[in-house]
Amino acid sequence: MGKEVERKFLVSSPAWRDKVEAEIRIRQFYVAAQPGRTVRVRISDGRSAKLTLKFGDRARERDEFEYSIPLAEAQELMAFAIGRVIEKTRHHVRHRGYLYEVDVFGGKLAGLVIAELETPEDVSDEMLPDWLGREVTGESRFYNASLALGGIPEIAA
Questions:
Q1: What domains lie within the chain, and their CATH numbers?
Q2: Burial class (CB in 10 A: 0-12, 13-18, 19+), 35
Q3: Has this prediction a pTM greater than 0.70?
C-alpha cells in the first residue's frame, strides 16, 4: 500500500509549457466510485495499463494501491466504465526541484488544466511556480472521478 500525498491547483497561465520534460497521453475511466473510494483503470500512451484503488477522503492524503494489468484487459474493462472516459495529456514540469504533473484535458473536459504536486513535504507558497492558480486540494469536484461522473466544475469553466 502506498500513500498518495498531493496538492491540486488550477493553472492560470501557459508559462509552464516551455518547461515540459515529458508528455503522456492518458485515457482513464472508473469502474467503481463512491465517496472515499474509487477503482480506476488508466491506459498510458496506448501501450500500458494500470488498475488503481484509492481510499480515503482527507484533503491531501489517501491510500493508494496500483497494479499493472494487461492492455487488452484494460481495453475490455472500458465497456464497464461509469460516467465518461477521461482523455488528457499529462505533462511533467519541474520547478525548484519538484515535479508537477500538468493535466490538459480533452473531449468534454476540454479547457480544463489542473496541476498536481505529489510530495509529503509542505511546499511554501513562495516556492510554487507563478503559473499556478487557485489551489483546489480537497475540493472533490476536481477529483478525476468527479470529472468522469460530472463535468467541468463551474469555477473552472
A1: 3-147 (2.40.320.10)
A2: exposed
A3: yes
With vertex at residue 65, the alpha carbon angle to CA 62 and CA 69, rounded to the nearest 5 degrees, is 145
Of 53, 66, 27, the C-alpha closest to 148 is 27
Locate 85 and state its grid cell: 472516459
Q: CA nearest 88: which of 19, 18, 152?
A: 152
- Separation between Cα atoms, residue 17 and residue 118, nearest integer Å: 19
147 vs 15: CA distance, rounded Å: 25
| DSSP character at residue 16 | G
pLDDT tens for 41-66 read 999 999 999 999 999 877 678 899 99
Residues with catalytic annotation?
A: 30
- Report d(CA 56, CA 134) in Å as an integer: 23
Grid coordinates given for 139: 475540493
CA 122, 128, 132, 134 torsion-angle sign: positive
